[in-house]
Amino acid sequence: RPARMKMRGWPHYLRIENTRLASVEGKTIAQLSREQGLSPVDAFIDVLARDPRACQSFSNEWEQDKQTVAAHPLVGFGTDAPPIKAVRMLRPPEMIATPVLYSAFPYVLEHYVRETGVLRLEEAIRKMTSLPMIAHGIRDRGLVRGGYWADLVVIDPETVGPRISYDELMPTPPCDGIDLVVVNGVIAVRDGVHTGRRAGMVIRNQDH
Predict the structure, then answer these.
(1) In terms of Cα–Cα distance, which of 189, 184, 178 is closest to 199?
(2) In sequence order, what DSSP letters do the residues of 86-99 get, joined into one string?
(3) What 8-state DSSP symbol labels residue 179?
(4) N or C, which terminus of the chain has less Cβ within 10 Å?
(5) Is 12 within 8 Å of 28 (Cβ atoms)?
(6) pLDDT tens digits, one per residue of 69-122
(7) Cα dihedral sign for 71, 72, 76, 79?
């Protein structure tokens, strides 16, 4: 993206994640520039010229910075991925799905709780449930409490984690360690398998 390419050091942060060109898969633009003897811009254009559907990821966040942000008590977790049907409409069927569709929260529990110990399990759950609801002015979700909507997830804290990467094709596989999902009091996932029942609804800010 042009705005990102104005950032200092952008070739080191822009990585080719999904392409038919095996020789460039997983490499940064800086690596391709060195290997091909081209300027970073020319190396990037060369990839797109040979594979216009190549996908890129951009990250200039160091792991320590991410851990510091994740541990802050006022920081909650969310995902901006669209529904899978919308993704299918916008992308050709052979395109990959973004991992944040299903893997954002399982990744937090695996990486920031089990692997790094940055968060206690209880704090990670709070950052996924009650804290976002408070931030968005939604008063009857996010807690197990009388009068609240029954949105519940039963997990195995020792195994919960993502099972998808940028190499996966749609439809995406379910994550590990999620046994039961209840949406608005209706069981949507039982024993890790979707029941086919859909009880979701649009949630609006209740403070306005």
Answers:
(1) 184
(2) HHHHHS-TTSBPPG
(3) E
(4) C
(5) yes
(6) 999 999 999 887 666 665 555 555 545 556 677 788 998 999 999 999 999 999
(7) negative
